[in-house]
Amino acid sequence: MKIAFIAHDRKKEEMVNFVIAYEPVFEGHEMFSTGTTGLRIMENTSLKIHRFMSGPLGGDQQIGAMVAENEMDLIIFLRDPLMAQPHEPDINALLRLCDVQGIPLATNIATAEILVKALDRGDFAWRDLVHKYKPISEEL
């Protein structure tokens, strides 16, 4: 599974603690993140994460590009609903793409925990079928 981690500044510590708590579940998966969030996770765990740019510098859009190509399986995006974000249009575009492609997306810690427990049970095996039977025209 390809999993992305994104966290606004005031949610980064919460994200790090969450990933530490579920590190054994994330091992063996391919992980992606926006810049600083990924760095903080790697500094506090043994996980290897492909880091994109910082969210405001295009990281949200880079993850969004993977979503648009149906190449992302799960996103944990801890948003700060009490702070205005200068790149709000990018955030909304990412959320919309997840809805269009049917990508599971958690925007708070409670939903993230439910999705990670489902991941641990193997409830996302249907995503393997999405990749296995991708139409040829999408592979070009």
Report on the architecture of this protein:
This protein has one domain. 51% of the residues lie in helices and 14% in strands. The protein is built from 8 helices and 5 strands, in the order βααβαβαβαβααα. It has helices spanning 12-21, 23-26, 35-44, 59-68, 88-101, 109-121, 126-132, 136-139; strands at residues 2-7, 30-33, 50-51, 74-78, 105-106. A 5-stranded parallel sheet has the order 3-2-1-4-5, sandwiched between helices. Strand 4 (74-78), helix 5 and strand 5 form a beta-alpha-beta unit. Helix 1 packs across helix 3 (35-44). The relative contact order is 0.17. It holds the Pfam family MGS. Substrate binds at residues 8, 12, 34-37, 54-55, 87. It catalyses: dihydroxyacetone phosphate = methylglyoxal + phosphate. Keywords: Lyase.
Please write out the topology.
Layout: E1 2-7, H1 12-21, H2 23-26, E2 30-33, H3 35-44, E3 50-51, H4 59-68, E4 74-78, H5 88-101, E5 105-106, H6 109-121, H7 126-132, H8 136-139
Parallel strand pairs: 1-2, 1-4, 2-3, 4-5
Helix pairs in contact: 1-3, 4-5
In which order are the strands of the major sheet placed? 3-2-1-4-5
Count of separate DSSP helical elements: 8
Beta-strand content = 5-15%
Mean pLDDT: 90
End-to-end C-alpha gap = 21 Å
The helix content is 40-55%
Helix/strand/pairing category? alpha/beta
Overall spatial form:
globular
Describe the oligomeric state of these chains in a short phrase. single chain
Low-confidence stretches: none
Q: How many beta-strand elements?
A: 5
GO biological process, one term: methylglyoxal biosynthetic process
Function: Catalyzes the formation of methylglyoxal from dihydroxyacetone phosphate.
Catalytic activity: dihydroxyacetone phosphate = methylglyoxal + phosphate
Protein name: Methylglyoxal synthase
